[in-house]
Structure prediction request, 226 residues.
Amino acid sequence: MDIQTNLKQVLAGLPVGVRLVAVSKFHPAEAIREAYEAGQRIFGESREQELSEKRKELPDDIEWHFIGHLQTNKVKYIAPYIALIHAADSYKLLAEINKQAAKHNRVIPCLLEIHIAQEESKYGFTPESCRAMLEEGKWKRLDHVRIAGIMGMATNTGDEAQIEQEFHTLKALFDEWKQAFFADRPGFKEISMGMSHDYPIAVRAGSTMVRVGSKIFGDRVYTTNN
Ligand SMILES: *Cc1c(COP(=O)(O)O)cnc(C)c1O
Prediction:
């Protein structure tokens, strides 16, 4: 299993304009360094403590993305440096990110996580609850948060037509909201969708950012149910 070969293979299949987040959760710093040495700079992690520990061992020019569920009490630890938070799923979390970002004089880009899959999930806005939050408008006063787009995960299924349909739903929500709420905010531009098993479908449906882990780093050793 060769990380650099896998990485190049994934990159070769991505059109210009689609960025790769190499999802390195549960893999050691040495694995990240291998990808780094092949030129990869964006890495995605889903647990604050694991991220903080690895970051200490790795070069400063890595752009760290937080891709998992983020608890409000963890925001303060990543606020000084995190480049993009992929899974903002409540106004409360956005407000906390705003508060912590202000302490560091930062504006933190965030994506709104939308639940589009059929599986039950505690996380993510529904399309309706997200639209209501955007309509309410309080987010416009969060000067230290930039809503940079949306993120979602398709159902974990072999049914490609279903996956494709879910990604199209996400793209349609992005287009609707871009016009309705972000027409004067060019920073709203990302659709984070696509993982190892479905990223080619996501790219065809309009993804601007894919989050690929096991296809680059191999299988993860699960230590928790995360
Ligand atoms: C783990 C994870 C990924 C990567 O999954 P792979 O199947 O290994 O590519 C992408 N997005 C999120 C939110 C994840 O938690």
